[in-house]
Amino acid sequence: MDKQNSNQIPLVDNNTNVKERSIVDEMKQSYINYAMSVIVARALPDVRDGLKPVQRRILYTLQKLGITPGSSYKKVARIVGETMGKYHPHGNDSISDALVRMAQEFTFRYPLVDGQGNFGSIDGDPAAAMRYIEARMHKNGAQMLTDLNEYVVDFIENYDGNEVEPTVLPTVLPNLLVNGNEGIAVGMATKIPPHNLGEVVDATVDVINYGNSWNDTTSKILNVNYEHDIKKISDIEKLPKDRFYKFETEINTDRILEYIKGPDFPTRAEMYDKTEIDQVYKTGRGRILMRAVSEIEEMKNNRFRIIITEIPYQVVKSRLLEKIAKLHRDKKIDGISDLRDESNKKGIRIVIELKRDAKPKTVENQLFKYTELQKAYNANMLALVNGEPKLLTIKQILEQFISHRQTIVIRRNEYKLAKLREREHILEGLMIALENIDEIISTIRKAKDADIAKVNLIKKFKLSEIQAQAILDMQLRRLAALERHKIEQEYKEIIKSINNTLNILNTPDRVLKIISKELLDLKEKFGDARRTKLFKGKVGEFNEKDLVPKEQTFVTISEKGYIKRVKYDSYKAQRRGGIGKKAMTTKTDDQVRHVFNCNTHDEILFFTNQGKVYSLKVYEIPEYGRTAKGIPVINLLNISQGELVTSVLTRSNDGLFLDEDVHQEGEESSEMKGKAYEFLFMTTKYGVVKKTALEQFENIRSNGLIAINLDDNDELIWVKPVTGDSEIILVTECAKSIHFHETDVRKTGRTARGVRGIRLKSNDVVISMDVIRKKENMMLTISENGFGKTTKLEQFTLQKRGGKGIFAHRVNKKTGNLTAARILDHPQLDLLIISANGMAVRIPTNNLPERSRQTSGVRMMRVKSGDTVAAIAII
User: With CB atoms counted within 10 Å of each terminal CB, which end of the chain scores lower, N or C?
Assistant: First the structure.
């Protein structure tokens, strides 16, 4: 036994590095090391470039291999092998999976890799094996590596010490927000949604420009004297590491959220509850409710179907279809007769046909309740800040990105300064040589070899070794007068560039302006429209206004009361004198009466010929195509038989009034729109005028309010907002006009009659009333047969109300009587002319002829036989 024991190897050899240690402590420390490795080196993105290490290494490998956006595609297997062999020794599956995701348009909002071949699908189909598919860097990915080779980021050795790799990419693209990221670490996870590039750029630029975002202690680059510290490239490595400053701002998060409305998912769909979404940005975590886009269509035989065209982010379409089918089989959703997937390259289209007795809205709500057609995205905005995982708000993410870009711009200019100084040094030596060319040549000729010549040049002319070598390398052609001039000119340009670069490095404002410009250039080049619609209310709590985008639109109303809303770009600008294009289909005895542009969220006040006023939201008017007739306004307003809309005003959400022809912007707008107005000024067909305080029209009942008490056979035709100190001009069908001051008409109540505005002949009626806002404005007049002109308002002399007036236009058989008259209050407008038969022409107002008051004008629209000009709109 003793002999056997003496031959055994001892458990602990005191001459080795083996140490006794508690297994509990060892397991604890080893697990912490493992956890931190997963957190820092695998699962979580860096707040600066928004990339995990594997994603960063893939992009860096693509650049090193030259597989850039303009190159040919290369096998993914080759890219994966290079990445794994040099930078990421964690298995090829993890690398290929990351590369595939970076190329999927339904995963990344702005893909960083451009793939060719089968890269998977939204149905959950996996990508083909990496030996079958090819890839190259996407143009978005190229923005991540801008200036990488100019000392802008730190490089570290790779895992085996044979290569170097960047610790972070210098990205111009705010990638953490625009593409988001997801990862599961040890004890923590991140889930950051993608966003719209344009919105993120606008928010970032506003944060940069907001007030004084820095102070004296943080606004200067520390411990660096650029006049002396950088003379060559190697000097950069000697600069202190704390020379960069951190960007911080006092901007309110609510202001940032005016730009970033919410996530913008690549699969589009809808989001709900702005309050809950805002909490995500203010706290770093929260719930975002997504919902598919669906519509109910009517089929034959009184049956309906539900069409789904957009699904929530990260929903696998094939599993969604399986779930719907299973719910139908299990009788949890009753009423489905057929389920089809008609999706193609143009987009998603899931068709759910319903039984005859099914209630479409009920079935649709059941689908939202039981399937992933409605799904919550649980955001958790966790990222690495200086190597430590931190939960970040939207403001902190933007601040960190701006700080990163500041560092990049500063380091880029430090590198540029070093290169310029090196060139400056050489040029100074060359100029010394040119000034002493005979002695230089003599010194070189007397030397036995180049090394001795270099030493002699250094001693005799006090040159550096670099300058002496440059002189020895100088070609004989540089001795020509023109070449000497080029060297001197280059030296001047170098000095100018050095001074500009020094100014950038010593001026934080300029650094921030450069960042802003680069971001705005990025937005212009790669920005696109938002895909995901956002509704402010909770599901089931939103109103109809939330369903309609806030955008400019046209509203047309015919003489017989047909109304419609059309898209703003339905009428394209043309040359004057054309016949136009079809604007509205009308009945044989009907014609267009009003056409005006407004916002879909505005309120319209409709004044009728019977002196009443009604109210309606623009989005409540159905939208039709350009040539459609529309629907009778009686379907929307509670008007009586024979009552016709004769004048309209729009009122914005904040209560500001805008009449059909107020189009001023900028400094005039605040004075002339809304709150500056105190009264509504009204004019009837037979020249009666009246003004009433605006507050009397605040609450308009569904059955309308009385706006004016009319004489027998008279009609209310024009209503305009006025300030209390305005000037009014009336124009009649027989081309008479009168210009008087508003104060000539006293204020009266809603039900009052009014006073005489103009004395008319028996065959004449008022066809226009307008408010003069600037004496420099022009009066536009157009006749029945399409002849028109503009006239300076100074030709219309100020009179007292109640007179016969003066001529505004010469009318005859060729021109026909006047149809419309408007004041043009801005030089850059468009005129839309619509005929009684619904033809329309749109022309720029700066193309209109200017004529004196008593002329007939020129042809503005070629009106066909039997047709006449019916209405105009100023756009």
Answer: N
